[in-house]
């Protein structure tokens, strides 16, 4: 198990603080909901509790099939988000490698150099990666995925 | 309304002396209490974790009260833009309006319609509020501080709630959760307006997360670190804010932040004319208010992020820099930071009351066919600059930005399809001037 | 110890089978009782073995939440709730990753899974929703084989789980590493050197996913189906 010292060491104000914040914020939201539930008046009525559709009688249920294009947007976003996640480590390391001397933390740049990476290699690697993304993007564009009418 | 006592109370509250006097009295009281209790919390200030907890409490209270005030200022700015007064009945200059609003939200009936999916209906506003209040944890509000009673060689404390090594990836992660609040609200309400509003909001939020990510990647290439405190320190050390290096990236992030917060001109999910209230159509009383609080909290966090990334955070030329870690420098830095955030919020509000709302097809076109290509092109340009080692060079960076802008304008001008607001499936119209 | 572990796993498998959607309501209730019993035994075991301030206690807590959320994902009748339990599962796993100091991975998990994949799921659910629950939501398709496969997988992992549970056989905690192992820098160095070809392959895969998504969704609009639900 890789559980190491920092799991409970409250030194850096790191994720422990986030855990506290998460608890506080959840409690706050719950408290507001309960408070609103308790304080406000409560008078039931058939018309009041009906679905509000500008005074019209609701026609049918909302639970029905929906436009497929939203799904396409979601898949597109999914692919691009995955690509971006791969780019973050590169964007952190690349400037350190090209300016290894005055980088804020030259250690990782050294390790990159030891592992045989050169600035040109990194640039090409991400260039190819981005080019693949662009091919897909242009294909989408040509197929009219971004046209909403 | 004719009750004389109520009238008298209203008149008293509308006197500026009463409001400002009460405000000053409360401020004095709080200061006095803090000064008196100082020995109690003095040991807490010296350790990073307990100090972070204090920052957490202070900033949470500040953000929650700021959201209340924001609603007043939003209405004041709306009034100013539309040449009317805005709220001015409750208290002098309407200053007590947030209090009145809050009370009203609490005292109104909390309706749960019959056809809703009750657990999700309750979960949605809680999620919207909670997700938007998580983000501020990594904002470096005031740089670093070393208290006078701490040993001079002790490492200074960071005025962040959490100094995470994942930096603003945390903000991206938390921000990507805010979509669930609106989707669930739309789904649970079982109302067609709410449903369309929720789906629109979701599609919009995820679409604009990409330009946001691309803009952040550009900043990342310049700074080489994800941690906001270091990004701010770099800008403070050189005195060159990132906005001078990458105005286009700033524009991308600004537009995406507006869209992510569902602010006008991206407020289609709640377009009154088409969708009544959008995803919160069926919500009333405090649950409705929670969506509002969430929206404003999101706006504050986005502004704070933009300020940290592009406007030097707490840095201002001539004021204490990163090497000054005294407590009074911390207060100055905090004031500078909050002023910048306030200016951004004012900008967001002015934008809302100036620009008309997009139509949905335009919205998607702006995201996918303009902002994403611009972002990719900018990323490629910045990668080339970084390869040459010029990513911090203002002139090289500005030249690249200008070049990109020129290419964009040229391609827009040469585009075969005229730039119109018409939907693409409508027949072509001639927009060239008739001579 | 292995017998106890195998007993817990068997209980879990049987309970899960009974609790799967499709059975009668009282059978499912029995299934949940069995599952709760298995969970209680597991919790008791963990509480007995894990001393107070051991971070493994927190680890076990997150793990239990993850297991519960995973059970609800496959047993809940409403797809939206299943998706929400999936998000809870993601959060629990994020907690595990943070405890393991895999911070970059934890954030990537939230961004990709909770922020993108689950949004896609929710869209698909909305896309296919009907006024009444669909037959494939009401009844699980292959509960026997599903439960059996999961059970066998866990039996194979039982040795590792046992190592985690039994203090005597537990390997000592690794010595603190000078540099946190899961930061973006630490992940990035091998990613950009050793696995750089793998990244390009992933890029190709994502490209294929893009094209495939259009191939599935972008048929010519046939009839009302497309214009309906249009805005």
Strand content of chain B: under 5%
Apparent shape of chain C: globular
Number of strands of chain C: 0
Q: Give the biggest sheet of chain C.
A: none
User: Strand percentage of chain C, roughly?
Assistant: under 5%
Describe this structure in words.
The complex is a heterotrimer of chains A (149), B (435) and C (231). Chain A has 149 residues and is mainly alpha-helical. Chain A has helices at 15-39, 68-98, 106-114, 119-142. Chain A has one domain (5-142): Methane Monooxygenase Hydroxylase, Chain G, domain 1 (Up-down Bundle). In chain A, helix 2 crosses helix 3 (106-114) and helix 2 (68-98) packs antiparallel against helix 4. Chain B has helices at 4-13, 16-36, 38-46, 48-81, 97-107, 118-134, 169-175, 178-189, 192-223, 228-238, 242-245, 247-260, 272-275, 285-310, 327-354, 360-387, 394-414, and strands at 144-145, 157-158. Chain B has a two-stranded antiparallel sheet. In chain B, helix 6 packs parallel to helix 14 (285-310). Chain C has a single domain (2-176), classed as Four Helix Bundle (Hemerythrin (Met), subunit A) (Up-down Bundle). Chains in contact: A-B, A-C, B-C. At the B-C interface, helix 7, helix 8 and helix 9 of B face helix 4 and helix 5 of C.
Please sum up the structure shown.
The complex is a heterotrimer of chains A (149), B (435) and C (231). With 149 residues, chain A is mainly α. Chain A is 60% helix and 0% strand.
Key attributes of the depicted protein:
heterotrimer, A: 149 residues, mainly alpha, Methane Monooxygenase Hydroxylase, Chain G, domain 1, 4 helices, 60% helix, disordered N terminus, C: 231 residues, Four Helix Bundle (Hemerythrin (Met), subunit A), disordered C terminus
Which helices and strands appear, and what pairs or packs with what?
The complex is a heterotrimer of chains A (149), B (435) and C (231).
Chain A: H1 15-39, H2 68-98, H3 106-114, H4 119-142
Helix pairs in contact in A: 2-3, 2-4
Chain B: H1 4-13, H2 16-36, H3 38-46, H4 48-81, H5 97-107, H6 118-134, E1 144-145, E2 157-158, H7 169-175, H8 178-189, H9 192-223, H10 228-238, H11 242-245, H12 247-260, H13 272-275, H14 285-310, H15 327-354, H16 360-387, H17 394-414
Antiparallel strand pairs in B: 1-2
Helix pairs in contact in B: 4-5, 4-14, 4-15, 5-14, 6-8, 6-14, 8-9, 9-12, 9-16, 12-14, 14-15, 16-17
Chain C: H1 2-19, H2 25-49, H3 55-75, H4 79-99, H5 103-128, H6 135-138, H7 143-165, H8 184-192, H9 196-217, H10 224-227
């Amino acid at each position: 198990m890789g559980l190491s010292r920092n799991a409970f060491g409250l030194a850096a104000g790191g994720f422990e603080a986030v855990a506290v914040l998460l608890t506080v914020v959840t409690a706050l939201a719950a408290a507001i909901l309960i408070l609103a539930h308790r304080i406000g008046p409560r008078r039931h009525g058939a018309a009041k509790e009906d679905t509000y559709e500008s005074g019209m009688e609701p026609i049918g249920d909302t639970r029905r099939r929906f436009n497929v294009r939203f799904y396409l947007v979601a898949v597109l976003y999914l692919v691009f988000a995955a690509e971006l996640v791969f780019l973050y480590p590169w964007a952190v390391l690349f400037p350190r490698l090209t300016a290894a001397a005055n980088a804020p933390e030259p250690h990782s740049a050294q390790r990159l150099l030891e592992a045989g990476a050169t600035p040109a290699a990194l640039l090409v690697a991400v260039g190819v990666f981005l080019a693949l993304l662009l091919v897909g993007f242009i294909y989408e564009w040509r197929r009219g995925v971004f046209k909403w009418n | 309304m004719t009750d004389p006592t109520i009238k008298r109370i209203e008149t008293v509250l509308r006197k500026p002396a009463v409001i400002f006097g009460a405000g000053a009295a409360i401020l004095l009281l709080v200061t006095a209490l803090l000064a008196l209790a100082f020995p109690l919390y003095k040991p807490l200030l010296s350790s990073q974790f307990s100090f972070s907890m204090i920052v957490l409490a202070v900033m949470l209270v500040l953000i929650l009260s700021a959201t209340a005030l924001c609603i007043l200022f939003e209405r004041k700015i709306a009034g100013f833009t539309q040449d009317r007064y805005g709220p001015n009945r409750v208290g002098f200059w309407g200053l007590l309006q947030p209090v009145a609003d809050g009370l009203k939200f609490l005292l109104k009936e909390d309706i749960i319609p019959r056809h809703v999916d009750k657990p999700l209906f309750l979960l949605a506003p809680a999620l919207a509020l909670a997700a938007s209040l998580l983000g501020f944890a990594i904002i470096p509000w005031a740089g670093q501080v070393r208290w006078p009673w701490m040993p001079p060689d002790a490492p200074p404390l960071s005025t962040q709630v959490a100094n995470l090594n994942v930096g603003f990836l945390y903000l991206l992660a938390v921000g990507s959760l805010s979509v669930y609040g609106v989707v669930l609200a739309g789904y649970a309400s079982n109302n067609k307006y709410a449903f369309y509003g929720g789906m629109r909001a979701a599609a919009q939020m995820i679409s604009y997360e990409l330009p946001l990510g691309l803009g952040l990647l550009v900043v990342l290439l310049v700074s080489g670190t994800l941690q906001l405190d270091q990004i701010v320190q770099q800008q403070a050390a050189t005195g060159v804010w990132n906005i001078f290096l990458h105005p286009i990236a700033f524009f991308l992030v600004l537009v995406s932040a507006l869209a992510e917060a569902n602010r006008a001109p991206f407020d289609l999910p709640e377009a009154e004319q088409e969708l009544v209230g959008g995803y919160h159509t069926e919500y009333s009383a405090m649950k409705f208010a929670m969506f509002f609080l969430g929206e404003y909290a999101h706006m504050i966090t986005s502004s704070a992020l933009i300020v940290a990334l592009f406007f030097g955070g707490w840095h201002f030329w001539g004021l204490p820099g990163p090497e000054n870690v005294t407590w009074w420098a911390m207060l100055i830095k905090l004031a500078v930071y909050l002023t910048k955030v306030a200016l951004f919020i004012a900008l967001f509000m002015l934008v809302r009351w100036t620009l008309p709302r997009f139509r949905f097809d335009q919205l998607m076109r702006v995201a996918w066919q303009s902002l994403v290509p611009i972002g990719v092109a900018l990323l490629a340009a910045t990668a080339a600059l970084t390869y040459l080692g010029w990513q911090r060079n203002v002139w090289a960076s500005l030249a690249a930005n200008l070049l990109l802008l020129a290419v964009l304008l040229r391609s827009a001008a040469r585009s075969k399809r005229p730039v119109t607001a018409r939907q693409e499936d409508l027949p072509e119209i001639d927009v060239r001037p008739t001579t | 110890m292995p017998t106890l572990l195998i007993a817990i796993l068997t209980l879990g498998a049987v309970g899960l089978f009974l609790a799967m959607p499709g059975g009668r309501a009282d059978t499912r209730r029995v299934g949940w009782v069995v599952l709760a019993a298995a969970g209680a035994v597991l919790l008791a075991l963990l509480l007995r073995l894990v001393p107070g301030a051991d971070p493994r206690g927190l680890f076990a807590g997150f793990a239990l939440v993850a297991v519960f959320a995973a059970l609800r994902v496959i047993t809940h009748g409403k797809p939206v709730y299943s998706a929400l339990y999936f998000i809870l599962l993601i959060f629990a796993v994020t907690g595990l990753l943070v405890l393991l100091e895999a911070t970059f991975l934890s954030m990537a998990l939230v961004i990709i899974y909770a922020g993108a994949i689950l949004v896609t799921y929710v869209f698909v659910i909305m896309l296919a929703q009907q006024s009444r629950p669909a037959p494939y939501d009401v009844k699980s398709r292959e509960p026997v084989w599903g439960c059996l496969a999961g059970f066998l997988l866990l039996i194979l992992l039982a040795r590792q789980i046992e190592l985690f549970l039994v203090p005597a056989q537990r390997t000592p905690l690794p010595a603190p590493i000078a540099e946190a192992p899961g930061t973006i820098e630490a992940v990035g160095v091998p990613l950009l050197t050793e696995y750089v070809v793998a990244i390009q392959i992933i890029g190709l895969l994502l490209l294929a996913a893009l094209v495939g998504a259009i191939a599935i969704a972008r048929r010519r609009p046939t009839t009302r189906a497309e214009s309906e639900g249009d805005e």
